[in-house]
Amino acid sequence: MTNYYIEDNGEVRVLKFNKLKEFEDKVELVFTFNTYGNGFKFEDDIDVRKTKFIKVSKYLNINSLDIVLPKQTHTDCLKCIKNVSKTNLIDVDGLITDIKNIPLATTFADCTPLFFYDPIQNVIANVHSGWVGTTKKIGLKAVQTLIDVYDCKPKNILCFIGPCIRKDHFLVNDDCKNIFEELFKDFINKYNIIEITDKFNEKGRQYSIDTTLINKILLKDIGILEENIFDSELCTMCNSDKFHSRRAEGINYEANTGIMFLK
Ligand SMILES: [Zn+2]
Q1: Looking only at Cα atoms, what is the longest distance across the chain?
Q2: What residues contact residue 136 under an 8 Å CB cut-off, 6+ apart?
Q3: How far away, in angstroms, is 210 Cα from ligand 1 center?
Q4: Residues 6+ apart with CB under 8 A from 158
Q5: Ligand 1 centroid to 242 CA: how many Å?
Q6: pLDDT single digits (tens) 241-263
Q7: What distance in angstroms lies between residue 209's CA and the mean position of ligand 1's atoms?
Q8: How far apart are the C-alpha atoms of 209 and 177, rounded to whole Å?
Q9: Ligand 1 center to 38 CA (angstroms)
Q10: In the chain, what are the domains?
């Protein structure tokens, strides 16, 4: 039994979370598949990328030009959005709003999509947390912003984790492993986060790291309830026939998009 379902109208295919059916008149959240040309290249100019939102915008009944799309650079920078801004958001990896009809979009190709919704304060956050963003704790910082700026209580916040690269496929060498060990030394040995593999590349032995689990631990630490974390449990690499994956597609990889807005 999965906690998501798929909608496909012949022009666009999206993943949606079961839990949000309860709030379907309040909030929309979709994550695109790689079908029907719904892919985005990171080097695409933002306006070019917006034209690629036409099909999914039609499906969502929104104006593609209203979509707020930051230029993500693996920062921990979050922006609270107050209007449909035509200005380019540079070096921003998370968007937050409590205003209706502002579609917030982020793109992913293996990185972890973290989406938040507080049904009490009616606020959303759409966060791109790659492994670098995870080391910078951008998901935790998004929740902290929801608490500080929007008066949210952690126990009310729902968290949704989209398709991303999972532990068995996220292989790194010593240098990257050491960063995680140092940053998360408080809990890294308490959980099964890092595993030594029998794989080697030109840089030596490879380790697998569970970045999704790190995000979940950080979120639970700040008070998000276990039962309010809804993980698609999908790996983009295992499902590279369905989703874009940077590691599966190589240098010409494209990205999936998560679009979220209040109604
Ligand atoms: Zn996988």
Answers
A1: 52
A2: 74, 75, 76
A3: 11
A4: 19, 20, 116, 117, 118, 119, 228, 230
A5: 12
A6: 999 999 999 988 999 999 999 99
A7: 12
A8: 8
A9: 21
A10: 4-166+226-262 (3.60.140.10)
Q: Are strands 27-32 and 104-108 parallel, antiparallel or unpaired?
A: unpaired
Write the single-letter amino acid at 64: S
Using 50, 70 and 90 to split pLDDT, how confident is the model at 81? very high
CB atoms within 10 A of CB 128: 25
Residue 88 pLDDT class (50, 70, 90 cuts): confident
Cα of 252 from ligand 1 centre, angstroms: 20
> Ligand 1 centroid vs 167 CA: distance in angstroms?
7
Query: Residue 184: how many CB atoms within 10 A of its CB?
Result: 21
How much is the pLDDT for 101? 96
Tokens (6 digits) for 24: 């379907």
- How far apart are the CA of 213 and the centre of ligand 1, in A? 14
C-alpha 153 to ligand 1 mean position (Å)? 34
Q: How far apart are CA 62 and CA 54, in angstroms?
A: 9
202-231: per-residue pLDDT in tens? Answer: 999 999 999 999 999 999 999 999 999 999
Q: Report whether 4 contacts 18 (CB < 8 A).
A: yes
Torsion-angle region of 37 (φ positive above 0: left; ψ -120 to 50: alpha; else: beta): left
Please give the distance, rounded to the nearest whole angstrom, from the Cα atom of residue 237 to the centre of ligand 1: 5
Confirm if 139 and 78 have CB atoms less than 8 A apart: no
Q: What pLDDT digit, counting tens, does each position of 11-37 carry?
A: 999 999 999 999 999 999 999 999 988
